[in-house]
Structure of LysR family transcriptional regulator:
Amino acid sequence: MGYQIEIRHFKYFLAVADELHYRKAAEKLCISQPGLSRQIKQMEEILKVKLFIRSKRKVALTAAGEYLKGEIEFILNHLEVTKKQLKYISQGDFGEVRIGFLGSAMQEVIPDLLLKLKDKFPGIRTSLEEVSNNAQINSLLKDKLDMGFVRLSRVPDGFNIKPVYEDTFSVVLPERYPLLTRDFEDVGQLSEENFILFSQDYSPLYFDTIMSICEDAGFTPKVSHKSVHAQTIFKLVENNLGVAIVPTSLQFGFQMKVKFIELKKIPQKAILSVVWKEDNRNPALRHCVNLLLEQASNAN
């Protein structure tokens, strides 16, 4: 009897690929372990490839299994997205655009975009998720996001990236720090302080840029703490645990006992870019991108 690959095979495979344990995967799926083993064996026979290496001690994915895991995650997620989009479109909407962003994008860029969408394309729904640069790229690859707002200098092949907002940097100091704006010359005056930065994993471009700002001033900063949240950084500064350098737009929306001194004389800028996959098939995405690029062009 000839068999065909069905959606259930994909779900069974992913359960084992995630758990790397047949009993745990079977419990997760609410089926018997022998039944799950038969389904995986059937899938391997249909595809004519071995997906798992199974021994008494462990279960591991083969190279083919690793590749298939990524593809199935994309396929199943895309099916769910398609079902949701169909529902919206049947109700007369354009559909939904799923947006990833760094916190600084929420200060100006995203609110402006949402207001313009509401005005020009009220039938476009949006969902927002604050995640790191790398997490946005991974989610875009797996079709879990349609577009992202990142601080990256490079993206993988198959992606488009366009700058949409240029910001200055500002030093963040405790409110009572004995340095006034009129007395500030450059960050070299802070060379003996501990610095609190956004994590390098969260935003490599930001981290490298801050390092270059300090190095231009003749010192390498002593980094005492790292975080992925601006509020955490400001709280640490507020409690005299260090100083920070952040995009200037981040000073808005926080009521904390810190002060900001804008770095107007340095060449480095905080560039925020929009990124999306070239082959994204969401019909509402193009409207969002066009509005963003129009917004960025008018700002320049």
The mean pLDDT is 90. The longest helix spans residues 63-90.
